Structures are given as C-alpha cells and as structure tokens.
Amino acid sequence: MLIADWVANYLKNQGIERLFVYPGGTIAPLIDSCLKVGIKYECFKSEQGAGFAGLAYSRLKKVPQVVMVTSGPGVTNVITPLADAFYDSVPLIVITGQISSLDLQARKEVRQRGFQETPTVQLTQSITKKSTCLIDEDTVFKAFPEAFSISVDGRKGPVVLDFPMNIQRTEILNGFPAYSEKKLIKAECSGFPETDLVSQIAQAMHKSKRPVILLGHGALNSGKYSEFVELAEKTDALVVSSLLGMGAYDTHDSRFMGYIGHTGHLSANKAVHQADFLLVLGARLDVRQTGTVTDQFVPNGEVAWIDADLSELNSPRVKTKWKVNCAIEEFLPELLKSLPKEAHLSERSWMEHIKNIKDLQIEDRDYSSTNGLFPKPVLSQLSLKLRDIPYTLVTGVGCHQHWAARHLPLSPNKQTLLTSAGHGTMGYDLPAAIGASMASPGQLVLCVVGDGSLLMNIQELASIKERRLNIKILVMNNRRLGIVSQFQKMNWGSDPTTGDFAEVNFSEVAKSFGIVSDKLTDCSKIEEKVNWLIHYKTAALLEVMIDPKADILPMLLAGQTMDKMWMGYQE
C-alpha cells in the first residue's frame, strides 16, 4: 500500500463521497488512489471553481469536504476560496500537491526549488485554522484525522494539507494506524455558560421594554430555529440578523425586521439603535454590521454577546455588558430555562413604530425618473413565485447581492442563502451554485449575479452544462460595478474605473455554453420572464437589463448612526 492509498481509504472511511478538484501533476497520485476506492471526482474549469463548489457543499452538508489542487498556480488560485472559507467560518479540507520533500529540504537559499513550487504553508497559514506540510508518513497519519477535527472544532474553518508527491508515492512498509470507526468528527462544545451569567442576561432581557435579538452566522449554523422563535415570543422581542444570519428566522414573520448594517433594512437598523437590550447570538459585530460610530451602538441599552470565538469577544468594537464564550446550542437551553415564567410585554408603541417602517418597504424603490428596469419589481415578482418553495439562493458580490438578500424570502430548513460576506468575493456565484446543486439534488437553486461578478468565473457555465444541473441564473446587468461605482460617485463625483462598461450579451454567451437563455428589457414582461426562468425544465439564464442609475438605497454610511441611512441623491 502506498501512502496515497492509505489517505484515499481514510477519506472514504470518513464519508467523503466526492472530491472537488482541478488536476495537476503533483496531486495526480492521490487522485488516482481515490478513484481506485470509488470516490467520485468533480473536475472544474479552475481552482476557484473547485474551491467555491466544495465550500458551498460543505456549508449545506455541515461537514468538511475535500478540495484537491496541484502545486504552484494551483495553490495560488485556490487561496481566494480558502480565504472565503476562513472569514465566513466554513469547514473545508484543501489538499495541495507539492514538489518532492527532498527538494524542499535542500537548496533553501534559492527562490524556487522545483517546477511549480510555491511556499504553500507560508502563503496559507494566516487564512486557515492550520496549514501543514506532510513531510513523512508519520505526519500524514497524524495530520488527516487532526485536520477533520480542527476544521469543525469551535469556530469552523479550512485546513490545508500540503502533500509532496514523493510522500504520496511512498510504499508503507512498517504498518499503519487503523482507521477510526468514528465518522467526520463533530465539533466539541466550547464550554457551558456560567449559570449566574445566564441568569443576569435572562433578568435583563425580561425587564427590558425594547428587546432585540440579533442572529448571526453562528446562530444559523446552530440549527436552533424553533428555540429562536420560542425565545422571541417569551421575551416579546423583535428579531434581526446579520447578512450571513439570514434564514435563521422566517423573513416573513411579523417579528423579523430584516438584516442590519451597511446595506441592511432601515427597520432592522432602527430596531437595534433604539433597543434597550440587545442579545447577540453568533455575530461578529464588525463594521459592516454596526457602522463606524461605535460609541453610539445601542446608545440607550445593554448588549449581551454570545459567541464561540473567544478572540472576537476579547477584542470588541462596541461596548458590551455581558460576554459569553459558548456555542449557541449550549447557551440557548440555559437561557430559556432561566427566563421568569410570568408574561413579558414590550413597549407596544415602539414595536408598532418599527414594524410600520418595515411595512413601508422603502428599500430600493425607484428613485429615478427614467422608465428603465429597476431591481425591486423583478425581485418582488420572484419573491411571490418562491414564497412557499424550498430553494437555495446563491449570490455573487455587488449590488445584486444586497438587493436579493433584502427582497427574496428565506426561512429555516426550507430556504437557504449562500453568499460571500467577510471576504466579499466576486465570482463566488456560479461555482457555489454548482456545489449547492450537488448537495441538494432535485431542489431549486437560484443564482442571482451581477454582470461584474459573473465574469469572474463565467467558465463554470460549462460545468453546469456537463452535469445537467437545474440551476436558474438571474443576471442583473447594470453595465457597471454598481456598489463600487456608487461609492466612487458619492465620494469623488465620478466612477471612471467602474461605470459605463461596454455591454456583454450574457444571454448569447450562455447559449454558446449550451445554456438556454432569455433577456428582459421591458417592465411589462417581468412576470412572464420570471415565470419562464423558474419553471423551465433545465438550467436557464435570464439577463435583466437593470437601469444603470439603480443604487443600493438606503445605505448606512461612515459617520452615520444606525438610525440614520443615506436615502439617495435628491432630484
């Protein structure tokens, strides 16, 4: 048995059914060994495609998947999905090929010791939970079980295993460790909350008149959706989320006010700003969530912050009264038990005020005098079609990302959002949609993407066609890099690098890849075209020609408190 054979058997024993790969010479031995034991491979058109597809598959399956790339450019091309997994806390195992360990250990004073060598560990260690070079068989036997454990323990994230080709091809002569019967190791509890601390939080929440619950990505990953509803009802609280927390609470529920922050809902931002108690469950409270005026975050209230990552709690950007280092799934039952049994009622006039702001639906209304297509009518029609349908929403990064998150329905165990938040990666869209479709065969996958983001990984249209995946692609083509263009215009009066792009005919490009497509240019055809897209029997692309004047409105700008948002240019 070769070491590569042992690894292949180990991966199969751990439940890995498929690999996300872009091949190359230094990873070829391991790919061959995996094929021998019956593990499927999914070969993409670039390393980014493989990485983002594996990342999406991991997010939906909630267990780390395996991405394999070769050395050199294979490594550097997969760094972007790696960073995405790291900043959005997605478990992932990335195995990179490497030149011979003998060459790595010699001639250390030269720039490059072999064809396509790059210093993988040094390049990736700051954006992974761990990055290791497998220099001998003992390291291999230790590193693989450790990698799966590390990736899901505490705050999830990626692990890199740099695998020299000669080690892969080394014959095992002295025996090897048996495979553990324990499949993909689950995360261990990050500690139980202190009873006294939970009691203090419960009492403060019960006494509050304007309680708000903020659900972050950690809350979404916990899966405690019914407990969130129970908590909100017991405390008579309003509920908001972060962008990545969208879907942890039904967006159509009367208590849910939207997601907070830079491009969030005005009702959500006002609810947080005016709260007298804010319970933060698994959100980072970063600048995109809180804005820049941190000393005015919840200015007249108290904040309780629960998070599995102690480093986040130890370096807060905003003032917090209670900080609990604990998994959400461990904290919630204790909090629910600690709440007083008597009924609690919040301030009715305040709740009605915030709900009335939500009902106004001011986000992204047509602020222009033109008769062009604007995003809200298109997405509102989509929302009607998708309200009761299980589906996965995947977006790229840009204006379309926030338009989609604002207006499309999401709910626990039924409708899921996959998007790039912390790293904000354009090109996440198509390959992530492919991974989502593989993870949930038969379920509708809607990929909402802008013209700029789509061009980043447009080659993966070929992967959709090859696999006959039923992915629906909505291209919101405004002929500009909208969100950066908006930023440039607001600050410098023009957008020389991001606006007025030469038009790409995406519907024709899709046809050249074998994807059925259509184009929407007329407001009167919105319902007809949207209905066609959703119900077409195979993969389909609808290009929507959005008016270039369409901005993300309102928007929380630097220097604004969360109750104030920029409402657009006055005409």
What do you see in this structure?
- The strands form three sheets. Strands 2-1-3-4-6-5 form a six-stranded parallel beta sheet, sandwiched between helices. Strands 9-8-7-10-11-12 form a six-stranded parallel beta sheet, sandwiched between helices. A six-stranded parallel beta sheet has the order 14-13-15-16-18-17, with helices on both faces.
- The model is unreliable at 184-189 (pLDDT under 50).
- The protein is 39% helix and 16% strand.
- Helix 1 (3-13) packs across helix 2, helix 3 (47-61) packs across helix 19 and helix 17 packs across helix 18 (399-407).
- The protein has three domains: 3-168, Rossmann fold (3-Layer(aba) Sandwich), CATH 3.40.50; 195-359, 3-Layer(aba) Sandwich (Rossmann fold); 375-545, Rossmann fold, CATH 3.40.50.970.
- Helix 2 (28-36) links the parallel strand 1 (18-22) and strand 2.
- The chain is globular.
- The chain has 571 residues and is of the alpha/beta class.
- The chain is built from 24 helices and 18 strands.
